[in-house]
Specification:
This protein is α/β, with parallel strands linked by helices. 37% of the residues lie in helices and 16% in strands. The protein is built from 4 helices and 4 strands.
Length: 137
């Protein structure tokens, strides 16, 4: 079983969705984790909602990247530019790759307007991350 760590700043949206999607869709090949360089201490409720709409139940927990420094990973994927800048070199094991996505937490408007952005980012994560990990097999 290969392991992948998804990094972003707050570990509340993008990295959480990536972790949940990989664990739901590729659980026979990959074991996913997520963390943040400045964890928000919560997982965004609209990220949870967007995942549940595609049949993925995820509670998640916002975690600091230091929790994983001694763990062995095959890949470490930054999903936001800020995390890529703050972790230009991954000091743990695993090849670091950047696959960036817009931050859905920056969406403005009502919850119904914001969920549209969360769905788009969720779908982009599912498409790009799954395709990338499947190409590593």
């Amino acid at each position: 079983m290969r392991r992948v760590l998804f990094l972003c700043t707050g570990n509340s949206c993008r990295s959480q969705m990536a972790e949940a999607i990989v664990n739901a869709r590729l659980s026979k090949e990959w074991w996913a984790f997520s963390a943040g360089t400045e964890p928000s201490e919560y997982v965004h409720s609209l990220a949870i909602r967007a995942l549940s709409e595609i049949g993925i139940e995820h509670e998640g927990e916002s975690k600091h990247v230091n929790k994983f420094r001694k763990m062995s990973f095959d890949l470490v994927i930054t999903v936001c530019g800020d995390a890529e800048e703050k972790c230009p070199i991954w000091l743990g094991s695993g090849k670091k790759v950047h696959i960036g996505f817009d931050d859905p937490a920056d969406a403005i408007g009502s919850d119904e307007e914001k969920i549209v952005v969360f769905r788009r980012v969720r779908d982009e994560i599912e498409e790009k991350i799954i395709q990338f990990l499947e190409s590593r097999e």
